[in-house]
Amino acid sequence: MMIFARKVASEADDGFLFQVYASTREQEIAEWGWTKQQQEEFLQIQYTCQKRSYESNYPHMEWYVIVHQQEPIGRLLINKQHDYWTLADMTILPVYQGRGYGSQLLQELLESANQAGANIGLHVATTNQRARYLYKKHGFQEIDHSGIYVQMEWKTSQKSSIQEKS
Known about the structure:
The chain is α+β, with helices and mostly antiparallel strands and 166 residues long. Helices cover 37% and strands 30% of the residues. The termini are close together. It comes from Brevibacillus laterosporus.
C-alpha cells in the first residue's frame, strides 16, 4: 500500500498548485504554436480564473496538496456541503500517474463520504477516458452529458468495486 498524505494547501503552495493545473493543459497548449512565455502567461490567467470561479461557486472548497515521501505529487479540491460533496479536481502530476495514487486517494475519499452519509458529484472531460474509467471502477455513474463534460455521481449506498487490500 502506498502511503501519502493530504495537507491543507496554503498560499505557499500556490506555485505548486499552478504547476499541477498547468500539467493538465500543457499538451493542448503546445499544439497552438505559442512561445513558452505566451503559454506560461495564458496558463497563469486561466489558473487565476479557475481559482476565482471555485472560490465564488464553492464557498466550502477544501484545497489539498497530495504528498508522497515529502514530495508534492498532486492536488485535491473538494467542496463539502452537508450530504453532497463536489469533487472539483483530483490531479496527480503526470510523472506519478499510473502508480495507484488516484485509486487510493479516491477510495479514501469515498470511505469518508460514506461515513458522513454524503454523495459525491463531479464533472470530467468526455475526452479524459482514463479518469472516467477510474471513476466508474469506483462506483460513479454517468448521469448527464453536456458536450465536453460528463457529470458523474457516487451515492453512499454504492460501494466502490475497489476494496483496500491488506
